Amino acid sequence: MAAFAIDSTKSTPRIFFDEGKNVLEITGESYPENTSEFYDPFFKWLNKHLDGLHDECFTVSIELIYFNSSSSKILMNLFDRLETNVEGGKNIVVNWIYDKENESSLEYGEEFKEDMTSLKFNLVKKG
Amino acid sequence: MIKLLDLKKDLDEKGVFLYFNGQISQELLVQLGDTLKQKLKTEEVKSQTSMKVFSMFVEQMQNIIRYSVSGGTNVPPDLAEQQVGVLSVGFDGSNYFVASGNKVDTVEVARIREKLEKIRSMDKDQLRAYYKEMRKKEIPEDSKGAGLGFIEMARNASKPLEFEFSELSERESFFTLVTLISRE
Asked: Residue A66: which H helix or E strand, with range?
């Protein structure tokens, strides 16, 4: 699988794919000026990665302190994409990591989880 | 001479602690956003409240960046000023407020008003359902955002969104949006 890594900035998250563990991590904050433009290279990589998956488990781990409304839409697109792949027989797990001090982060995670039917979506308390 | 002291007194009196008037960029948003986060830290508010204020700030700044349009009838479109607006953040004694203002095309007023009135009529549960419904929808290719900004703001606000349009000319109107976040 091809590697993928983008360093974080104040308004964009770090996106890192750990090839050894088959874990994708999205961490930090997300409020870029042009959200679709920022995430476009990531989705291109993701599509290829999903196509290349067999039986192995692919974990997507998300820990976002803050994301704006257009990033919320992008996350929805991401989860929809993952769900489609699960329905196509792929083994994918999402870990939504939230801070116990940040109630909204848990609520946001719950709202995504509710919209998923076949994608395994874990809400993971940090600390 | 310009009376900046009068302006400052007025802002202080209304509890405004962050104010900007002019052209807004993403870089400026990030810088001012940092200042805002620092300020809220010293106020010792709950992290959730502080996050809501920050979220209002980002959504409104990005609305100005994406949607503010201006230019008089004599100005060619490429010379018209863009991404220009006013933004203020303050505390009125019980609520934080984030307010912004920018020019919009007068022909757009009815559409924006309708959108905001619809959101204003909803309670928290309805807003939650509406937000999720809109998030599932495909975004038109030419759209600059996800169209979720106002709903996100309404969900974070402790009172319904307040807004006003003032017609500046046949072509231009000034749009003011005020959002309140209870300090709790």
From this structure: strand A57-67
